[in-house]
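Chain entry —
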Amino acid sequence: LDPAWTTDWITATGRQALSAYGIAPPAPGGSKRSLLGEAPEVSCPQCGSRHTERLSEFGSTACKALYRCLECREPFDYFKCI
């Protein structure tokens, strides 16, 4: 637990595996936008479009949010930055 785990530790291979499984990986380095209450810009893991919308702050687990792609219309989880 020391140092605390962060999503920055996810390797490129891990990010590719999440995306292949249908989960949008967190952006490297996190985002300061979340501190201001702004939703992050998330790419669809199916088609790669950045034209997405957040449906729910919480997805299948508390560490994921539920999104939908407005291009391919598929729902997907986004792994939140921590």
